[in-house]
Amino acid sequence: MITVFDDMQRLHNPSSFLVAGKSQPMPERPERIDMLLEGVRRAGGRLVAPKPIGNETLSLVHDARYLAFMDTLWERWHRQPDAAEYPAPNIHALGRSSLAPVGYPDSVVGQVGYHVGDGSCPFMDKTWDAARASAATAAHAARLMLQGERFVYALCRPPGHHAASDVAAGFCYINNSALAAEILHRAGKRVAILDIDVHHGNGTEAIFYDRADILTVSIHADPKRFYPFFWGYAEETGRGAGEGYNLNLPLPRGTAIDDYRCALAKALRRVGDFAPEILVVAAGLDIAVDDPFKGFAIATDDFTTIGGDIADLKLPLLVVQEGGYPSPSLGASLVALLEGLRS
Ligand SMILES: [Zn+2]
């Protein structure tokens, strides 16, 4: 099993993020990598490193203004006297893109308010380098699929599925799954994305919301009481040409494997109807019962069942790591999922 991984991903090492207005210890930290690599080793993975990628590749799914902002953020933020250690918004560009146009400021404080969606994406001096390495990992995996591989695991960290074309949010800076899908699409492949992370993949949804050529399907905890709160509802089915090409399957907190499999069957039927040539699996392991986010109650062995159901589609699979946070079972959940997906 080819596993793409770049050690530069370790450079992003934040200590905290905001929960209920309070600074809390950050679960999206480099030790995740060691837990996941241990799973890869047990699954018999062979590591390959990606080549760095430039903004021309990132701009396949990200706005040029956003990339310019991220390239210069750390240096510009710290040119301000008395700025906080991490750039953080104290204003948000409400109403952008949907209700009315908003202006785009030159001020870095204003731009942080424009491009940073929430208090869950701390930005340090090497954050952007780590995010780029994570994106390069997904892009390299996509190229391997184009060379004829039928199964590649992209160990991407930081994750990506909450990042929209011009917004960082929820530990995510670059949308790795969307980038991989778009690279495959540009090469002429019909692609669907199945997001099994416990959180709705709102960034991925946003990037493809108006399009019929890439199907997006997400199974996740009901946003009525779970991050990202404003997206992930069943009514979000796509817009314009994209109508009918986004499927959200929200489930109650605490959902266990039987009810999960019913939703998964619906998801896989939709994917089957779309008839992709390659399926991108946005693989969040935070559906595990002992994940610190406590969204679902999926046991370690259940991951093999879930992987097996997906494998029954008999499609080439590009598996992109999304969430899944330090817990005793994190590595074992990955081993079990990979085993099922390769069955
Ligand atoms: Zn998640």
**Name given to the CATH architecture:** 3-Layer(aba) Sandwich
* CA gyration radius, whole angstroms: 19 Å
CATH class, named: Alpha Beta
Count of separate DSSP helical elements:
10
Record keyword descriptors for this entry:
343 residues, alpha/beta, Arginase, Chain A, 10 helices, binds zinc ion, Histone deacetylase family protein
Question: How would you characterize the overall build of this protein?
Answer:
- The protein has 343 residues and is α/β, with parallel strands linked by helices.
- The protein has a single domain (2-341), classed as Histone deacetylase domain (Arginase, Chain A), CATH 3.40.800.20.
- It is built from 10 helices and 10 strands.
- It has helices at residues 31-42, 55-58, 64-77, 108-115, 127-146, 176-186, 202-208, 257-274, 300-311, 330-341, and strands spanning 2-4, 16-19, 22-25, 46-48, 151-154, 191-195, 214-221, 246-251, 278-283, 317-321.
- The protein has an 8-stranded parallel beta sheet with strand order 4-1-5-10-9-6-7-8, sandwiched between helices. The chain has a two-stranded antiparallel ribbon with strand order 2-3.
- Helix 9 (300-311) links the parallel strand 9 (278-283) and strand 10.
- Helix 5 packs parallel to helix 6 (176-186).
- The longest helix has 20 residues, at 127-146.
- It starts with a strand and ends with a helix.
- It binds zinc ion (ZN).
- Residues 197-199, 284, 286, 323 line the site of zinc ion (ZN).
Brief overview:
The chain has helices at 31-42, 55-58, 64-77, 108-115, 127-146, 176-186, 202-208, 257-274, 300-311, 330-341; strands spanning 2-4, 16-19, 22-25, 46-48, 151-154, 191-195, 214-221, 246-251, 278-283, 317-321. The chain has 343 residues and is an alpha/beta fold. The chain is globular and about 55 Å long.
